[in-house]
Design a protein that fits this description.
The protein is α/β, with parallel strands linked by helices and about 525 residues long. It has 15 helices and 20 strands. Helix content is about 35%, strand content about 20%. The two termini are about 45 Å apart.
């Protein structure tokens, strides 16, 4: 079994475009460009009019993620030029550059490029902060090159992908180059953090179960100087975290609550509350339990741990960013399997906070492990609680694989997350979860039930979670539609996406120490 994940080294250089030397020079072109923009005339002249000649033919339209490979004439310093479409000029966003960079490196890998020069941003003028440009381009290349190949034997790896790509962002203006380089440093951390989450989430259920996920957390905590505490089944029983225990009761791999702490405050007080607690659902494999799922696509249920994997990545990213914050990460981990010891429909569970929950469906398990973890989070009296979970199929139906559902009890927090979503390119859509949805979750024989019918079920599930955070500012991200994909895209491989890692790191970067 080979560890084949490719590596990408990103640098910034001030060399003028006509004098760049590389295996491939990547340029961005807007949609329906007929005449070469002035910013590219010098490089086009040096390349023997290769770019302008192609534009004249109309064979390249410039739509987003379209590529064209050119071979310059004369003594141009780059053997190849690749044009990448940026789409409509008026609608260009920072995420356009991120995806274009991903598209470029994935296309370059197909022809075995080792040295790449990137000038995708040449035409955007002053529309975007150069720091964000450098960050987005770097993230796009690191995320784009990711490939999960841990179980692929070397002899069966037929790709031309170079294991170590040297990619240089070209910015001749010295002042902008400094800012782009600052963004590059952040982009490396965020891109690698997202890939870290993807690598863990992609692992199958026979490799990752609650105890092995806990060992992974301990290893990462040691590597990134985080504090890590793991509560095993006996400690969970002592604390009466019965919801986590119930979900994991059918598996021989017993549940865990993984607790990570990042302490970046300059003068920390041990008793001071966290700036944020981030909670991530980690069902290492979800069969549905007694309410078993259909066999079709059940293999994808290894991705039901994505929220917890994101928490690991976010905490390690915080350690690298060295933000002056105190942040806790909570990962309730369980394997939901049917057996003679499984919890059943009709059971009533007394949760960590004392509220009782009637079980209507054992496949609505994520909200159960989260409710105990959210109660634990609220006890530390943080400024905010954020949770991420592949929670409901209803959110997939509502929003597809394009954005996550954003729920919560605090409008200012939701607005900040929406801003972070725009910067990170990880889109969210604000969803309701008020009293009317909570009413659907009321039981006649317990305080709550774990399902409330098909209508608005993503909203009622969020309302259920909101009952366990007390009065803390809280936001819930339902990432069921965006955490994984079976569709390869020009800028990204199939499998786990790591969605939410960069979004929450962007949000945490915006926090000011209290």
């Amino acid at each position: 079994m080979a560890q084949n994940t490719p590596q990408t080294r990103v640098t910034v250089d001030k060399t003028p475009l006509p004098k760049v030397r590389a295996d491939l020079l990547v340029l961005g072109i807007y949609k329906d460009t007929k005449k070469l923009p002035p910013a590219l005339t010098a490089v086009d002249k040096a390349a023997g009019q290769a770019v302008s000649n192609l534009l004249k033919t109309g064979d390249f339209t410039g739509k987003a993620d379209e590529t064209a490979l050119l071979y310059p004439l004369g003594k141009f310093g780059c053997r190849r030029i690749m044009l990448v479409g940026l789409g409509d000029k008026k609608s260009l966003q920072i995420n356009t550059l991120r995806q274009a960079a991903g598209t470029a490196v994935r296309a370059a890998d197909k022809i075995g490029i080792a040295r790449l020069a990137l000038a995708l941003h040449t035409l955007i003028e002053k529309k975007h902060d150069p720091r964000l440009v450098g960050q987005a381009l770097t993230e796009g290349m690191i995320i784009g090159r990711y490939a999960y190949q841990d179980y692929l034997s070397e002899k069966n790896d037929n790709s031309k992908k170079i294991k170590k790509l040297s990619a240089t962002i070209i910015e001749p203006k010295a002042a902008d180059a400094l800012k782009i380089n600052a963004g590059r440093k952040t982009g490396i951390i965020l891109g690698q953090a997202q890939n870290r989450a993807r690598s863990i989430a992609n692992k199958p259920g026979n490799e990752i179960n609650p105890p092995t996920l806990a060992r992974t957390a301990r290893r990462l905590a040691h590597q990134f100087s985080l504090r890590c505490k793991v509560l095993d089944e006996k400690q969970l029983e002592k604390l009466k975290m019965n919801a986590i225990l119930a979900v994991g009761s059918g598996s021989v791999s017993k549940p865990r609550l993984i607790i990570l702490e990042y302490q970046g405050r300059p003068h920390p007080k041990k008793s001071s509350p966290p700036d944020a607690v981030i909670v991530g659902k980690a069902i290492t494999f979800d069969s549905g339990g007694i309410s078993i799922k259909p066999s079709q696509k059940m293999a994808a249920m290894k991705f039901d741990k994505s929220g917890g994997c994101n928490v690991l990545a976010i905490l390690t990213g915080l350690a690298q960013l060295k933000l002056p914050l105190k942040v806790l990460g909570l990962i309730p981990a369980a394997e939901n399997l049917p057996s003679h010891t499984s919890y059943r429909p009709g059971d009533i569970i007394r949760t960590f906070c004392g509220k009782t929950v009637e079980i209507d469906n054992t496949d609505a398990e994520g909200r159960l492990i989260l409710c105990d973890a959210l109660t634990y989070a609220a006890q530390s009296k943080p400024r905010v609680i954020l949770d991420m979970a592949t929670l409901t199929g209803a959110c997939v139906v509502a929003l597809g694989e394009h954005m996550a559902g954003l729920f919560g009890n605090n409008s200012p927090l939701q607005r900040k997350l929406e801003k972070a979503a725009r910067i990170s390119g990880e889109k969210v859509w604000l969803m309701p979860s008020g009293k009317e949805y909570l009413d659907q979750m009321k039981s006649s024989i317990a305080d709550l039930k774990n399902v409330g019918g098909r209508e608005g079920s993503a909203c009622s599930a969020a309302a259920f979670l909101g009952e366990f955070v007390k009065d803390t500012a809280w936001a819930h991200l339902d990432i069921a539609g965006v955490a994984d994909t079976d569709k390869e895209k020009p800028f990204r491989s199939a499998g786990a996406t790591g969605y939410g890692v960069r979004l929450l790191l962007e949000y945490l970067r915006s926090l000011k120490i209290s």
